[in-house]
UniProtKB/TrEMBL annotation:
Name of this chain's protein: DNA-binding protein
Domain named Helix-turn-helix: residues: 60-105
Highest taxon of the lineage: Bacteria
Keyword Kinase part of the UniProt annotation: no
Lineage: Bacteria, Pseudomonadati, Bacteroidota, Flavobacteriia, Flavobacteriales
Assigned keywords, A-Z: DNA-binding
Record InterPro entries: HTH_17, RNA_pol_sigma_r3/r4-like, SinI_DNA-bd
NCBIfam families, A to Z: excise
GO molecular function: DNA binding
């Protein structure tokens, strides 16, 4: 059978393959492909580490977090958010938050990651006043209305405590809800 030219996967040049399995035109392209593969594996490993740091129960994701978990480019997400294709909560510049469930609807399940062994988790929050924000403080700190704060607290079952005429919620839970690392 007559051998036909193939197209090199690296440089795109045509070459006459030595055998049916050849996909690179030269040792140079073959080496380059190997290097690229190693880089890709390293990057995948880094992504795994970053994704592993995002709490599994985090409902509101920053754009970088959503990108990592769902394998979508940040640029694409920012565009979709600004076009209104992805509904988002905008808490200010660089504080766009995307609902994790919306991402799952649009892009399918998040990367499956080995979750750390979950020993029966101790509740980490404290309802002592000094460990809490009042609803008013939350609204001011994160630039959202008190009504939205109450909605989120209900929706995500965040514990609250009433002291006098103010309602308090644990700082840790609130920070986890509204903060995200925008700089990873
Ligand atoms: Zn080549």
């Amino acid at each position: 059978m007559k051998r036909l030219n193939k197209q090199c996967l690296v440089c795109g040049g045509e070459f006459l393959p030595k055998n049916v399995a050849s996909v690179y035109c030269s040792p140079k392209c073959s080496k380059k492909a190997y290097k690229q593969k190693m880089l890709r594996l390293k990057k995948e490993e880094e992504i795994k580490v970053l994704a592993g740091k995002i709490p599994e129960n985090k409902a509101f994701l920053s754009v970088p977090e959503a990108g990592i978990l769902f394998g979508v480019a940040k640029r694409t997400l920012y565009r979709l958010v600004s076009q209104g294709e992805i509904p988002s909560v905008n808490l200010g510049i660089r504080l766009v938050r995307i609902d994790r469930s919306v991402m799952a609807e649009m892009f399918g399940p998040a990367r499956s990651l080995p979750q750390p062994e979950s020993a029966p988790k101790k509740k980490l929050y404290s309802l002592e006043k000094e460990d809490c924000y009042s609803i008013g403080e939350i609204a001011e700190r994160f630039q959202i209305s008190e009504g939205s704060v109450y909605n989120h607290i209900r929706k995500y079952s965040i514990p609250t405590r009433q002291i006098g005429k103010y309602v308090y919620a644990p700082k840790m839970e609130i920070d986890n809800l509204y903060n995200g690392n925008d700089f990873i």
